[in-house]
Design goal:
With 205 residues, the chain is an alpha+beta fold. The protein is 56% helix and 13% strand. Strand 1 and strand 2 form a beta hairpin. The radius of gyration is 19 Å and the shape is globular. Bound molecules: zinc ion.
Protein backbone atom coordinates (compact mmCIF):
# COMPACT_ATOMS: atom_id res chain seq x y z
CA UNK A 1 0.00 0.00 0.00
CA UNK A 2 2.71 2.45 1.01
CA UNK A 3 4.66 1.56 -2.08
CA UNK A 4 1.79 2.46 -4.35
CA UNK A 5 1.40 5.92 -2.79
CA UNK A 6 5.11 6.76 -3.09
CA UNK A 7 5.14 5.60 -6.72
CA UNK A 8 2.16 7.77 -7.57
CA UNK A 9 3.50 10.83 -5.80
CA UNK A 10 6.96 10.47 -7.37
CA UNK A 11 5.42 10.21 -10.84
CA UNK A 12 3.76 13.61 -10.26
CA UNK A 13 6.89 15.20 -8.76
CA UNK A 14 10.09 16.63 -10.21
CA UNK A 15 12.34 14.64 -7.90
CA UNK A 16 12.65 10.94 -8.50
CA UNK A 17 13.22 9.95 -4.88
CA UNK A 18 10.52 9.87 -2.25
CA UNK A 19 12.43 11.78 0.45
CA UNK A 20 12.70 14.80 -1.82
CA UNK A 21 9.56 14.32 -3.84
CA UNK A 22 7.35 14.52 -0.74
CA UNK A 23 8.85 17.88 0.20
CA UNK A 24 7.54 19.37 -3.03
CA UNK A 25 3.94 19.04 -1.84
CA UNK A 26 1.80 21.49 0.07
CA UNK A 27 -1.64 21.20 1.49
CA UNK A 28 -4.14 23.00 -0.73
CA UNK A 29 -7.67 22.06 0.26
CA UNK A 30 -9.72 19.57 2.21
CA UNK A 31 -13.22 18.34 1.71
CA UNK A 32 -15.64 15.73 2.90
CA UNK A 33 -16.94 13.43 0.20
CA UNK A 34 -20.34 11.77 0.39
CA UNK A 35 -19.24 9.61 -2.49
CA UNK A 36 -16.79 6.90 -1.51
CA UNK A 37 -13.42 7.36 -3.13
CA UNK A 38 -10.15 5.48 -3.35
CA UNK A 39 -6.89 6.89 -2.02
CA UNK A 40 -3.71 6.90 -4.11
CA UNK A 41 -2.43 4.18 -1.78
CA UNK A 42 -5.33 1.96 -2.79
CA UNK A 43 -7.17 2.36 0.50
CA UNK A 44 -10.96 2.25 0.07
CA UNK A 45 -13.24 3.84 1.06
CA UNK A 46 -12.08 7.31 1.98
CA UNK A 47 -14.37 10.23 2.72
CA UNK A 48 -11.95 12.80 4.08
CA UNK A 49 -10.11 14.03 1.04
CA UNK A 50 -7.08 16.32 0.96
CA UNK A 51 -6.10 18.10 -2.20
CA UNK A 52 -2.35 18.62 -2.30
CA UNK A 53 -0.39 20.74 -4.72
CA UNK A 54 3.15 20.44 -5.99
CA UNK A 55 5.05 23.68 -5.40
CA UNK A 56 7.40 23.10 -8.34
CA UNK A 57 5.17 21.96 -11.19
CA UNK A 58 1.69 22.88 -9.86
CA UNK A 59 0.42 19.31 -10.22
CA UNK A 60 -2.51 18.56 -7.99
CA UNK A 61 -3.73 15.30 -6.64
CA UNK A 62 -6.02 13.98 -3.92
CA UNK A 63 -5.19 11.69 -1.05
CA UNK A 64 -7.12 10.37 1.90
CA UNK A 65 -6.23 11.40 5.41
CA UNK A 66 -4.74 7.89 5.81
CA UNK A 67 -1.77 9.08 3.78
CA UNK A 68 -1.66 12.78 4.44
CA UNK A 69 -0.49 12.07 7.99
CA UNK A 70 1.74 9.07 7.52
CA UNK A 71 3.72 10.20 4.59
CA UNK A 72 3.41 13.84 3.86
CA UNK A 73 3.50 15.44 7.28
CA UNK A 74 0.72 17.81 6.36
CA UNK A 75 -1.44 18.43 9.38
CA UNK A 76 -3.94 21.05 8.33
CA UNK A 77 -6.26 18.60 6.64
CA UNK A 78 -7.00 16.83 9.90
CA UNK A 79 -7.87 20.03 11.70
CA UNK A 80 -10.39 20.75 9.01
CA UNK A 81 -11.96 17.30 9.28
CA UNK A 82 -12.24 17.67 13.06
CA UNK A 83 -14.15 20.92 12.60
CA UNK A 84 -16.37 19.45 9.89
CA UNK A 85 -17.33 16.57 12.18
CA UNK A 86 -17.95 18.83 15.16
CA UNK A 87 -20.14 21.30 13.29
CA UNK A 88 -22.06 18.59 11.47
CA UNK A 89 -23.07 17.26 14.87
CA UNK A 90 -23.91 20.65 16.33
CA UNK A 91 -23.70 23.78 14.24
CA UNK A 92 -23.67 26.10 17.24
CA UNK A 93 -20.13 24.87 18.01
CA UNK A 94 -17.02 26.72 16.86
CA UNK A 95 -14.53 25.79 14.21
CA UNK A 96 -10.93 26.07 15.35
CA UNK A 97 -8.85 29.19 14.79
CA UNK A 98 -6.69 27.46 12.15
CA UNK A 99 -9.78 26.48 10.23
CA UNK A 100 -11.33 29.96 10.33
CA UNK A 101 -8.07 31.33 9.05
CA UNK A 102 -7.96 28.71 6.32
CA UNK A 103 -11.50 29.21 5.10
CA UNK A 104 -10.99 32.98 5.00
CA UNK A 105 -7.72 32.64 3.07
CA UNK A 106 -9.63 30.59 0.48
CA UNK A 107 -12.34 33.27 0.17
CA UNK A 108 -14.86 30.87 1.67
CA UNK A 109 -16.15 33.59 4.01
CA UNK A 110 -16.22 37.36 3.75
CA UNK A 111 -14.09 39.78 5.72
CA UNK A 112 -17.12 40.71 7.82
CA UNK A 113 -17.80 37.07 8.61
CA UNK A 114 -14.17 36.45 9.46
CA UNK A 115 -14.00 39.42 11.85
CA UNK A 116 -17.32 38.49 13.40
CA UNK A 117 -16.20 34.92 14.02
CA UNK A 118 -12.86 35.96 15.51
CA UNK A 119 -14.80 38.26 17.83
CA UNK A 120 -17.26 35.69 19.13
CA UNK A 121 -14.96 32.66 18.88
CA UNK A 122 -14.46 32.19 22.60
CA UNK A 123 -17.72 33.69 23.79
CA UNK A 124 -20.22 31.38 25.44
CA UNK A 125 -23.29 33.55 25.76
CA UNK A 126 -24.24 34.79 22.36
CA UNK A 127 -27.37 36.78 21.63
CA UNK A 128 -29.97 35.10 19.45
CA UNK A 129 -28.87 37.18 16.50
CA UNK A 130 -25.17 36.47 17.03
CA UNK A 131 -25.87 32.75 17.21
CA UNK A 132 -27.85 32.92 13.97
CA UNK A 133 -24.93 34.60 12.20
CA UNK A 134 -22.49 32.10 13.65
CA UNK A 135 -24.61 29.18 12.42
CA UNK A 136 -24.86 30.75 9.01
CA UNK A 137 -21.07 31.01 8.80
CA UNK A 138 -20.71 27.43 10.02
CA UNK A 139 -23.06 26.26 7.29
CA UNK A 140 -21.03 28.17 4.77
CA UNK A 141 -17.95 26.34 5.96
CA UNK A 142 -19.72 22.99 5.58
CA UNK A 143 -20.86 23.90 2.09
CA UNK A 144 -17.38 25.05 1.18
CA UNK A 145 -15.81 21.77 2.25
CA UNK A 146 -18.47 19.54 0.72
CA UNK A 147 -18.00 17.18 -2.17
CA UNK A 148 -20.59 18.99 -4.24
CA UNK A 149 -18.78 22.32 -4.02
CA UNK A 150 -15.46 20.76 -4.76
CA UNK A 151 -16.70 18.94 -7.79
CA UNK A 152 -18.00 22.32 -9.02
CA UNK A 153 -14.61 23.90 -8.40
CA UNK A 154 -12.91 21.01 -10.17
CA UNK A 155 -15.13 21.41 -13.22
CA UNK A 156 -14.36 25.14 -13.34
CA UNK A 157 -10.65 24.45 -12.96
CA UNK A 158 -10.83 21.95 -15.80
CA UNK A 159 -12.19 24.57 -18.21
CA UNK A 160 -9.73 27.26 -17.10
CA UNK A 161 -6.83 24.88 -17.55
CA UNK A 162 -8.04 23.98 -21.01
CA UNK A 163 -8.42 27.69 -21.82
CA UNK A 164 -4.71 28.22 -21.19
CA UNK A 165 -4.04 26.40 -24.47
CA UNK A 166 -7.06 27.83 -26.28
CA UNK A 167 -6.58 31.56 -26.03
CA UNK A 168 -9.48 32.33 -28.41
CA UNK A 169 -11.89 31.17 -25.72
CA UNK A 170 -13.60 33.97 -23.77
CA UNK A 171 -13.13 33.01 -20.12
CA UNK A 172 -15.28 35.75 -18.61
CA UNK A 173 -18.35 33.56 -18.06
CA UNK A 174 -16.34 30.80 -16.40
CA UNK A 175 -14.50 33.33 -14.24
CA UNK A 176 -17.82 34.76 -13.13
CA UNK A 177 -18.92 31.23 -12.18
CA UNK A 178 -15.75 30.84 -10.14
CA UNK A 179 -16.47 34.07 -8.27
CA UNK A 180 -20.03 33.01 -7.65
CA UNK A 181 -18.89 29.58 -6.44
CA UNK A 182 -16.46 31.22 -4.04
CA UNK A 183 -19.16 33.54 -2.76
CA UNK A 184 -22.01 31.06 -2.39
CA UNK A 185 -20.13 27.84 -1.72
CA UNK A 186 -21.59 26.25 -4.85
CA UNK A 187 -23.13 26.89 -8.23
CA UNK A 188 -26.83 27.20 -8.89
CA UNK A 189 -28.38 24.50 -11.04
CA UNK A 190 -28.49 26.82 -14.07
CA UNK A 191 -24.87 27.81 -13.65
CA UNK A 192 -23.87 24.17 -13.35
CA UNK A 193 -25.76 23.30 -16.53
CA UNK A 194 -24.14 26.23 -18.35
CA UNK A 195 -20.73 25.00 -17.31
CA UNK A 196 -21.45 21.41 -18.33
CA UNK A 197 -22.72 22.70 -21.64
CA UNK A 198 -19.37 24.35 -22.37
CA UNK A 199 -17.49 21.20 -21.38
CA UNK A 200 -19.59 19.01 -23.65
CA UNK A 201 -19.68 21.40 -26.62
CA UNK A 202 -15.93 22.00 -26.65
CA UNK A 203 -15.16 18.37 -25.81
CA UNK A 204 -13.00 19.36 -22.85
CA UNK A 205 -11.59 16.41 -20.96
ZN1 LIG B 1 -4.06 6.47 1.62
Amino acid sequence: MHFKLTEEIISLSDSRTWDFAKLEWDFEFAYYSEELQTCLCGHFPIKNICVIRNKRNSNQTEVGNCCINKFLGIEDGNKIFTSIKKIKEDNSKSMSAVVIDYIYSKNGISEFEYNFYVDIHRKRNLSFKQLEIKKRINNKFLAFTSYETNSHFNRIKLVLKWAENNSWFDKSFVLSLKKSCERNGKLTENQRLGLENIITKLKIE
